[in-house]
Amino acid sequence: MGLDAGSTFGLALTSGGTVVAWGDRNQPRRGTAVPTGLSEVIAAAAGSAHGLALKADGTVVTWGDNTYGQATVPSGLSGVVAVAAGGSHSLALKADGTVVAWGRNDHGESTVPTGLTDVVAVEGGGWHSLALKADGTVVAWGSRQAGQGVVPPGVSNVSAVAAGGAHNLVLHADGTLRGWGMDNQGQATVAPGLTAFQP
Prior knowledge:
The chain is 0% helix and 41% strand. The protein is mainly beta. It has two domains: 1-104, Regulator of chromosome condensation 1/beta-lactamase-inhibitor protein II (Methylamine Dehydrogenase, Chain H, 7 Propeller); 126-199, no CATH class. It has a three-stranded antiparallel β-sheet, with no helix packed on it. It has a three-stranded antiparallel β-sheet with strand order 4-5-6, with no helix packed on it. The protein has a three-stranded antiparallel β-sheet with strand order 7-8-9, with no helix packed on it. A hairpin with a 4-residue loop joins strand 11 (128-133) and strand 12.
C-alpha cells in the first residue's frame, strides 16, 4: 500500500522507496517516528500510533508505540508480501499464504486461526483482523462486540477487504460493496446504488 492513515497520522510511500509521515503533533515519537535511513520499502501501514514498512527483501521494519509489542517484529520473520496494522496489533502476509500477527491480543486479534492458508490480503481493525483467501472467502477473528469478528452469511466472491475500528467492508467481484459490524454512524451501511466500484 502506498498510502495509509493511522488514528492521528498519515504515511505515504515515495517512488524512491522511502516513507514520509505527518501528523501526530502531540506525540511525535509515535507513528511519525520513521526510522532514519529506511529505504527499499514497497508497502507501508499505519496503526493507531505505530507504523510498519515492508521492504523489497521481504522483511518488515516497525516503529512507534510498542505498548503491546506491536512494533516488535517477530524473530526470523521473512518472506513477507504484505503488511497491515490494527489499532495496536500488526499483521504480515507471507508468500506461502500464511499470516503472522503480533501485538495486542486482548480480544484475540493477534491469534491467527489455526490452519489459515491461501490468504491473499490482510487487514487490521481496532480489535479484530481480516484475511481474504484466494477463493474469495473472508476469515475474521478478534473482537465480536459489534459483530466485526464474525463474517456474515453470503460474503463470497470477494476481491478486496477493508477494516475500520469496529466495522468491515468488502468489495465483491461484481463491483458491489457490503459492510458489517458497528454501524452507529452508518459506517457499515453502504451508500444506496453504489455499484461497479473499483478499489
